[in-house]
Write a structure and sequence with these properties.
heterodimer; A: four-stranded antiparallel sheet; 0% helix; B: six-stranded mixed sheet; 11 strands; globular
């Protein structure tokens, strides 16, 4: 149980374009979903917290107009990277929580050229 | 905000020996401490967690201890096996009872099991 999927697993896009990443909890309903970013050989950094039907809460330093989060249901959250730049290239990982436990998706590797 | 320090950054042990990874946290309000295992190119996998009302928790070869007073917690892996090789992250968060906050992670420990 507690399986979280992400789609796509990797994506390459051109600078200036937008990319959407989906996060789904497959066998449970998540009260909250989180989005993290991980640069190579570094730790995970929380970007935003998302509750179904509510606006996402962004961490300090994360541009909410650049990283759009939509939490349409208890099993689906999406992250859209708008006007992507090479410095946005990273590993984006979502997690879905059941009470206090967080289960992570497999991650999405974004490369902006 | 919360700050989590993790040591060591790299740990090499002989197969069959034990491995210990230590973390400290700064925010005394934190009450949930999970440990994750991450393999290359994959998302983190929850391996064990502990809440602040418990001092120790064990699951087969893996155990976690928590010292609230000193604000540190540790991961213990016994009888290490080659498949234990990975990067391990500790994390901390606050759970108000209505759901947890986002996790603050340590910088990770690259565990290498030497055959």
């Amino acid at each position: 149980g507690a399986v979280v999927s992400q789609h796509p697993s990797w994506v390459i896009c051109k600078s200036g374009t937008s990319v959407k990443i989906e996060c789904r909890s497959l066998d449970f309903q998540a009260t909250t979903m989180f989005w993290y970013r991980q640069f190579p050989k570094q730790s995970l950094m929380l970007m935003a917290t998302s509750n179904e039907g509510s606006k996402a809460t962004y961490e300090q330093g994360v541009e909410k107009d650049k990283f759009l989060i939509n939490h349409a249901s208890l099993t689906l959250s999406t992250l859209t990277v708008t006007s992507a730049h090479p410095e946005d290239s990273s590993f984006y990982i979502c997690s879905a929580s059941v009470l206090y436990e967080q289960y992570f998706g497999p991650g999405t590797r974004l490369t902006v050229t | 905000g919360e700050n989590v320090e993790q040591h060591p950054s790299t740990l090499s042990v002989q197969e069959g020996d034990s491995a210990v990874i230590k973390c400290t946290y700064s925010d005394s309000a934190s009450n949930y401490f999970p440990w994750y295992k991450q393999e290359l190119g994959k998302g983190p996998q929850l391996i064990i967690d502990i809440r602040s009302n418990v001092g120790e928790k064990k699951d087969q070869r893996i155990a976690v201890t928590l010292n609230k007073t000193a604000k540190h917690f540790s991961l213990h892996i016994t009888e290490t096996q080659p498949e234990d090789s990975a990067v391990y992250f500790c994390a901390a968060s606050y759970d108000s009872g209505g759901g947890a906050d986002g996790l603050t992670f340590g910088k990770g420990t690259h565990l290498i099991i030497q055959p």
